[in-house]
Design a protein that fits this description.
The chain has 621 residues and is α/β, with parallel strands linked by helices. The protein is 32% helix and 21% strand.
């Protein structure tokens, strides 16, 4: 979606008449029905006159076109400024200009990462050359009018019009960023002549209206090059082979997709139910790979940001194709998407869907499930009601079914039972369900899954982290102070009896599960849901205890510290506390992240000695 598409002469007039802000505000309201933040208006006021001055002095022929606020499809990212036209050889060009009000910056760790003052404090962000180049590559891989080999040549740069560089040791020009700068130059305050020449060389002859129209109307779908890159990840890779009922579920989705009637608006929704380790993600990723090859417009949705980032990094790392990350979206990305814009949307971990996204406008009568179903002809949801771990999680089976029926979608249900995680041990899951949900059945724990109860959190760390290379996890029974103290994460997870303390996972590191620093931090449920590791160690806090008198588990509301996930306390002496189910679900989810084994330390002694008494630290299963 492009908010503003006008000739360069009209753009200059809007700026000189001091109307550009009001014009953009009207267009945003008209096209997006959104309000605009004061900071965004300030950026228009401060940056667009600078570009108007560049264009006014660039000696451009009439017909050069300016596009402002190009919203990249199903993302929150917008291209600030894009200009189209022909050069003196008759070649069609489009130039992206990323506008920044920065005044200084610092070097930072990470590929293409810098530090600058944003939002009231110094923050890590991407280098302007990387940002503008990433937008260019996105368009080249998703907008058909700009695919490699088409007649429009797309280039990019960044303009920091308030920034006076240190010519001797400017952080933004450091050698570590040179590969991005070479592809997408960065211009500073006194580089206006250089930027003017670049624009003149590209679009001086005008005739940009048709180019702008093609870009604005270009069909959004992955390029052949990107599809081939994704396909190469799956060929011969045993990690993605479909087994038994996984294959059945996969073929069910394809049969429904092949039967879609593109002449009508008839929708289909497929609800695939399966517990931990039943291969839901493997099915979903195979579907995305195949349907991309069929030229379907498809995206893969994961509400959990950490899970999404791990999937992206694993696939990008194998392919070297950064644009793969644009195929994976969060569940809040479909607020404004038109009806049936996508052929297929696949939503993994659908039980984590919310009523609305963080910082998103609330639309009456809609939630994230509504928006996903509305946005696609075929919506596929992978769900497990027993992994609902917060009062904000709405994606239960019945709600998804109800939302689909409201939109007159044909609903199909598929169930997965076979266990492909936890050493393929269905026995372990049956035993765990019996233990956590007080089923009081006589189920011995046997099989190949390595389960142990240890005597101290330090022993848990030694066995899981040092010996097995795994990760420690914990229930939300400790407060989480997310602000560093003297540059270090506070050690919030404390077990005084054993003089043990470790920090929660770094909230700014969403790749915690695969980053080396993660071994010295404890993962929370919101970080690890959807992920799997060979071995995990779980600290069961005093939010889950054992009552010898009733001979059953008890959830202690006062010891559960996740205020955002905690439902209101029910009224009435005999009312069932919904937090009880959420805490049990949390520990089931944590204790099923391991593919080969799970060791636990229990803070509550009655729970350790009585309820898990048959599973001492010397016995593996």
């Amino acid at each position: 979606m492009i908010i503003y598409n006008e000739s360069s002469s009209k753009f200059i007039s809007h700026v000189l008449e001091q109307r550009i802000e009001s014009v953009l505000l009207d267009r945003v309201q008209e096209k997006m029905n959104h309000s605009v933040s004061p900071s965004e208006i300030r950026s228009w006021t401060n940056s667009l006159p600078q570009m108007a001055k560049i264009l006014r002095d660039a000696d451009l022929k009439d017909g050069t076109h300016v596009l402002l606020e190009y919203k990249l499809p199903s993302t929150e990212k917008r291209i600030d400024f894009l200009i189209t036209g022909e050069d003196k050889t008759g070649k069609q060009n489009a130039v992206i200009v990323e506008l920044k009000q920065w005044q200084k910056s610092q070097l930072a760790e990470g590929d293409g990462i810098v530090k600058t003052y944003l939002g009231g404090r110094n923050r890590e962000t991407v280098h302007p050359s990387y940002q503008s180049l990433s937008y260019k590559r996105f368009l080249e891989n998703f907008n058909e009018s700009l695919y490699e080999g088409t007649s429009i040549n797309l280039s990019s740069c960044a303009y920091l019009h308030n920034y006076i560089p240190n010519r001797e040791s400017e952080p933004l020009l450091d050698e570590r960023y040179q590969s991005y700068i070479e592809q997408s130059p960065v211009y500073f305050q006194f580089d206006d002549l250089l930027l003017r020449k670049r624009i003149n060389d590209a679009v001086s002859e005008g005739k940009g209206d048709e180019i702008a129209r093609r870009i604005e109307e270009g069909r959004i779908r992955p390029s052949k090059k990107l599809v081939e890159a994704v396909n190469s990840l799956f060929e011969g890779n045993e990690e993605f082979i479909l087994l038994d009922e996984q294959k059945v579920a996969y073929e069910k989705v394809l049969s429904i997709y092949n039967g879609l009637d593109l002449e009508t608006d008839q929708k289909h929704t497929i609800l695939i139910k399966g517990g931990p380790g039943t291969g839901k993600s493997v099915i979903g990723l195979n579907l995305m790979n195949f349907l991309l090859g069929e030229e379907a417009t498809i995206e893969y949705i994961t509400p959990n940001q950490s899970f999404r980032e791990i999937l992206r990094k694993k696939l990008i790392g194998r392919s070297g194709f950064v644009e793969i990350r644009s195929l994976f979206k969060g569940s809040a990305a479909y607020v404004d998407t038109p009806n049936n814009y996508y052929d297929v949307l696949v939503c993994d971990e659908a039980h984590r869907l919310k009523n609305q996204g963080h910082m998103k406008p609330k639309i009456e009568g809609e939630n994230q499930a509504t928006q996903i179903i509305r946005s696609s002809r075929l919506s596929v949801f992978f769900i497990d009601d027993e992994q609902v771990i917060s009062n904000k999680d709405i994606g239960r089976f019945e709600l998804l079914k109800e939302e689909a029926e409201k939109q007159n979608a044909n609903v199909h249900v598929v169930e997965l039972d076979s266990q492909f995680r936890c050493a393929g041990s269905g026995n372990y899951l049956e035993w765990l369900d019996n233990l956590l949900y007080d089923k009081k059945q006589d189920i011995p724990l046997d099989g190949d899954f390595d389960f142990q109860v240890v005597d101290s959190p330090q022993e848990l760390y030694d066995k899981i982290v040092k010996e097995k290379g795994g990760r420690l996890l914990a229930g939300y029974a400790w407060d989480w102070n997310k602000n560093p103290i003297n540059g270090k994460l506070p050690k919030d997870v404390v077990v005084e009896e054993h003089d043990f303390a470790m920090p929660w996972n770094d909230p700014n590191r969403i790749d915690w599960a695969i980053h080396p620093e993660g071994s010295e931090q404890i993962g929370c449920i919101h970080t690890v849901q959807g992920l799997e590791m060979e071995y995990v160690g779980v600290i069961i806090g005093n939010d889950l205890t054992y009552n010898p008198e009733t001979q059953s588990l008890e959830v202690k509301r006062e010891n559960f510290k996740d205020k955002g996930a905690r439902p209101a306390k029910p009224k009435g002496k005999y009312a069932v506390d919904p937090l009880d189910q959420l805490v049990r679900n949390t520990y089931k989810t944590l204790m099923t992240r391991g593919m080969k084994g799970c060791y636990v330390y229990l803070v509550d002694k009655d729970l350790k000695n009585t309820y898990m008494g048959g599973n001492n630290k010397d016995k593996s299963h």
